[in-house]
Amino acid sequence: MCQKRAIFKPMTDEERQALKLKCGGSWKLVLRFLKAGEVCTRREKSQAIAGPGHSIAVTVKGAVYTFGANNLGQLGLGTTEEEPRPQPIRSLQGIRIIQACAGVARTMLISDAGQVYAFGKDSFGEAENGAVGTKHVTTPQLVESLKDIFVVQAAIGNFFSAVLSREGRVYTFSWGDECKLGHQTEATDIEPRPLLGALENIPVVQIAAGYCYLLALACEPSGMSVYSVGCGLGGKLGHGTRTDEKYPRLIEQFRTLHLQPMVVAAGAWHAAVVGRDGRVCTWGWGRYGCLGHGNEDCESVPKVVEALSHAKAVHVATGDYTTFVVSDDGDVYSFGCGESSSLGHNAVDAQGNRQANVLSPELVTSLKHQVSEPIVQISLTNSIYWNAHTFALTESGKLYAFGAGDKGQLGTRLPANQPEQCKPVRVDVDLS
Questions:
Q1: What is the pLDDT of residues 199-256, one digit of tens each?
Q2: Does 3.30.450.20 match the CATH number of domain 41-426?
Q3: Which residue ranges does the record assign to the RCC1-like domain (predicted)?
């Protein structure tokens, strides 16, 4: 059964045995590791990524379309011109992309051969609003420093980037002060550094990067677990404190809750997890109600979102003070800051003013009414410097967008003087 998995097939016997040893000496645990990674990142399936001002769409066959802001070449189209409609990256013809991620003016793509392509801002660790490193790349370029690592996922945070290897090893670029990610490097460093500490011998199936912190979903013999590292401001590391962690530390609260984490999401200042039983936990900075607990309080350890007890969640996405949850029947719930119409509710009060903040999960009825099939993935902007937009992807590969569209990031032209789209609109791109 392991040999049927796409990532396992090209491994040598030596590499397979090493993975087996890392997974606890059992082929059954290897299979669990492989399948968990496929589910978390939609590997080998269509995906949509709502980046800061620009967007990426990947088809089932691995073709890539980009649109939106392009001031530093982050669309990979060979130009720096803004694109309001999805455009294929033709220079990648013949290369199958299985995963993508977006940061401010930067894009990273992962091929089925484990190679990483990057374009846009030519820095792995530049702060989103920093002026360091003005060089830019307008077409996908192979990241030479990763050529000896078979990569299956990438994540872009603020001040750093991270990649995950086929064997479940995490590597980070930049922001390597010993007080931050446990290694000493410069902001312009282009060499990947292995994440040291507790995860050196535990395989990771998914990584998620937020504002100056990283979450890792790990596959241990005793079950799935979550580790966090980086800045602890707002309690977003989940350890009951607000202190920083320079090495990955186990979030122990999931054991107390008897919850097996299956999907992890890192927002700018808060985080979320979906458990095997469909429960959703959130923690971190609760501003605007982004934790879904009916208030704006911070939570320094994961807390179950009780208002979602009637639904079995399968997917969660987090942004800048916003959260989306997808249930097993394809319904979508959202909560938090609704500026730019990125929550999809478009609610108004008695005076006709829009109610921006949603403190508890609410069904996104605009999707329910407009989309006739289940939603399988939500992606939303995870940046504190950009107005947010949101994508909803259906089972058959139809893509819908709403929220901020001032740079063309929705994939459709908005009427003059209309900077955002309140209701979901179909994006003219076929991801099947």
A1: 999 999 999 999 899 999 999 999 999 999 999 999 999 999 999 999 999 999 999 9
A2: no
A3: 46-378
pTM score, two decimals?
A: 0.93
Identify the CA nearest to 380 among candidates 255, 272, 235. 272
- C-alpha to C-alpha distance for 176 and 71, rounded to whole angstroms: 28
Res 257: pLDDT: 97
Contact between 85 and 67 (Cβ < 8 Å): yes
All structural domains of the chain with their residue ranges: 1-40, 41-426
Spans in the chain with pLDDT lower than 70: 125-134, 176-179, 183-189, 346-355
Q: What are the contacts of 237-246 at 24+ separation with CB within 8 A?
A: 237/213, 238/271, 238/283, 238/284, 238/300, 238/301, 238/302, 239/300, 239/301, 240/300, 240/301, 241/300, 242/300, 244/179, 244/180, 246/178, 246/179, 246/180, 246/181, 246/182
Backbone angles phi, psi at 189, to 5 degrees: -65, 135
- Return d(Cα 287, Cα 359) in angstroms, integer: 9
Beta strands in 6-157 (DSSP E): 47-50, 54-58, 64-68, 83-88, 97-103, 106-111, 116-121, 136-142, 151-156
Q: What's the pLDDT score for residue 129?
A: 46
DSSP tag of 414: P
How many C-beta neighbours within 10 Å does residue 386 have?
A: 23
Q: What is the pLDDT of residue 182?
A: 72
SS3 3: helix
109 burial type by CB count under 10 A (0-12 exposed, 13-18 middle, 19+ buried): buried
Backbone angles phi, psi at 370, to 5 degrees: -95, -30
